[in-house]
Structure formats: C-alpha cells, structure tokens
Amino acid sequence: MKTIVTLIIMLLSVIVIPGISQEIRPIRDDIGFCWDKVQMDRFIDYFRSTDPQKDEKPLSNLIAGISPHDDILYAGPTYYPLYKQIKTKEVVIFGVTHGTVRKEIGDPQEKLIFDSYKYWKGPYNLVEISPLREYITSRLSTDTFIINNKAHDLEHSIEAQIPFLQHFNPNIRITPIMVTGMDFQKMDKIASQLASIIAAYIKENKLQLGKDIFFIMSADANHYGKDFNNTLYGEDEKAHQIAIDRDKKIADTCLTQVINPEKIQTLTTELWGQTYKDYKDTYWCGKYSIPFGMLSLLHIIKDIDNTNELTGTLLAFNDTYSSGVVPLTKTGCGITAVFSLKHWVSFLSTGFQLSKKQ
C-alpha cells in the first residue's frame, strides 16, 4: 500500500509541479544578486550604516529612478539611495535587452518585450505581476511588442531590482518591460502609445504617481576594457579618470535638472553613434532603457497633469574599479566578472521628481 501511495505522489508531482513552475519566472543570476532574505537584510543593514546621505531628507514627490543591475557586492551602495525612498504598491521596470539575450531570441528591433509569468521569484516571497501588464498588452499596438518568456528568462537587468524592491515593499507588484533598440523617433512614438495606456490605468484605479506607482529604468553605465572592445583612452589610471569624467558629464547634462524631450534626445546622441545600433565613446547598456523610460514619463505626466514637469537628481555614481567589493563575507553572493583597469563597469542611481512648472 505504501508503495502505491508513493507512486501516486510521484505521478502527481510530475503532472502538477511543471504547471506551477510555468507560472513562476526562474532566477537568472543566483551569484551576483541576493535571493536569501536573511542575507538581504544583512546587506541593507550594511548599506544603511555606511550611507553617506543617511541624515539627508528624502526627495519629495519622487516618481521614478535609474538603478544599476550590476552585482550587489559591487553596486549595492549605489542601488540603496534610490530604493530606500520607494514606498509604492507597484513598479514598472524598464529593462535592458543585453546582446547575449538578443542573439538567443533573434535580435528583435523596435519592440517592447513582455513576459506571461504570473509571478517572479524574490528573496522574501513570490512577486506578483501587476494587472497593468495585461492592461497594456490588450491595448498596445501589436506591432510594437512581443511576449517572450525566454527573453525574460535570459535577461538579468529586471530581476536585479527585485531584492531591493521587495525588502522595502514586501507586497510589491511589478510590470517588467524589456526595451530593444530603436531610433529616437520610433522610441518616442511607442513611448507615447504606452504612456497613454498607463495614464488611463492610473486614472481608472485612482493611483498617484510616486505614492501608488513608481517607474524604474535599469541600466549600468560605461563598460570599459578589452573585454568590451572599448579602450578609447588606454588602460591606465588616466584613461579610467577620463572615461569616468565622461560618464559623469553625461549624467549631469542629461539626467539632472528639468527633463525635456530635447535633453533626452541629447542623451541618445551622447550614447549612440551614427545610428542607434552603434556606440559612441561610452558603452552604456542602458542606452535604450533610460531614454525610453524618460520619454514614457514625460508623456504620462502630460496625460495626467500637464502643469507638472520632471526633474532629475543624481543620487550616487560609482564603478567597479573605484569601489571594489562590499566587505561582507558569507553572503551567498559572488561577483560575476573581474574588475581592474583593463575591465571595469560604472553605474549610477538617479531620482526623478514631479514638480510644478515654473
């Protein structure tokens, strides 16, 4: 009898468990990101204790931000200044479509990529997908997006945000959106369509920007060294400083103060070469996710209350060579790439606030 019961349980597990697992997006990076709640709490305690801005007041009317997606042992202190200020019910995350992912899925262009999972995994519990995703995909022009779970399975730029989001907001709901390559005109056209749908959702559900819904653009900045085919300035300390100064100038010029379409277009010219498919003299993997997210925000604000404008504040900037590794041991995390003058990545966090037009 015991043998029969055991066989029945085994058969049920074969039938049921795959069905359940198909509803949950699997973790892509279990080395660079933290998926254990105890260890995530340790990280946050460390970031809080070493936060140089811990005595400063939070930004008022914060509705969006740019966040890194590099390893927590590298970029954790750069994530933290943004995430400690997010207290919303749900978040829209604009993610990157990295080159390795594009190769695996046929390199789609001029598309947004959605998934069809019901949940994503988090360190504390499962993360529910917001009904906003289906609200969008049922209304957005079908030629502007695809639904591809494999793309989201392979991409790490969105999942990187979840441990931080869930620590500060245990019941957070997300809308994951991967952004592919497109020129500025196409980007603005799709962003406008998407924004009108999101604005309608916000109005129907009586949500407030920054209080109920938040927007995150996932992006790392420059990728420098031979491994990235990017040695424009050489590979010594002077080259590192030149490249870092270049990144900071882009951030100060394009991501701070009042944000408008002209400033976003300037950002694209700073990050792209002759066409959107190229790189100029800095290799930001957020060269699509950032401008697309910012354009979407401008259109959303215009649709909801055109008396408001968007302003940006740089919260933190760092790079793997300068900062090295967070000095915590036995966290269960590691680093997914080396750092040196011959191989480093920069990253930043930025907050975007809503304010009345002057």
Short structural description:
This protein has helices at 2-21, 37-49, 72-83, 99-105, 132-137, 149-154, 162-168, 184-204, 237-254, 261-271, 289-304, 320-323; strands at 24-25, 62-67, 90-95, 112-114, 119-120, 127-129, 145-147, 173-179, 213-218, 223-225, 257-259, 308-319, 343-356. It is α/β, with parallel strands linked by helices and 358 residues long.
Strand content: 15-25%
Helical residues, percent: 25-40%
Rg estimate, integer Å: 21 Å
Say which CATH homologous superfamily is assigned.
Answer: LigB-like
Instruction: List the helices and strands in order.
Output: HEHEHEHEEEHEHHEHEEHEHHEHE
State the low-pLDDT regions, or none: 1-18
Instruction: Give the total of domains.
Output: 1
Shape descriptor = globular
Largest sheet: 13 strands, mixed
How many helices? The count is 12
Q: What is the CATH class? A: Alpha Beta
| CATH architecture group name | 3-Layer(aba) Sandwich
For this structure, the CATH topology is Protocatechuate 4,5-dioxygenase, Chain B
Give the class from helix and strand content and strand pairing.
alpha/beta
Overall residue-averaged pLDDT value: 94
Distance between the termini: 79 Å
The count of DSSP E runs of length 2 or more, i.e. the number of strands, is 13
Characterization of this structure:
The chain is an alpha/beta fold. The chain has a single domain, classed as 3-Layer(aba) Sandwich (Protocatechuate 4,5-dioxygenase, Chain B). The protein has twelve helices and 13 strands. Strands 1, 2, 3, 4, 5, 6, 7, 8, 9, 10, 11, 12 and 13 form a 13-stranded mixed beta sheet that branches. The radius of gyration is 21 Å and the shape is globular. It starts with a helix and ends with a strand.
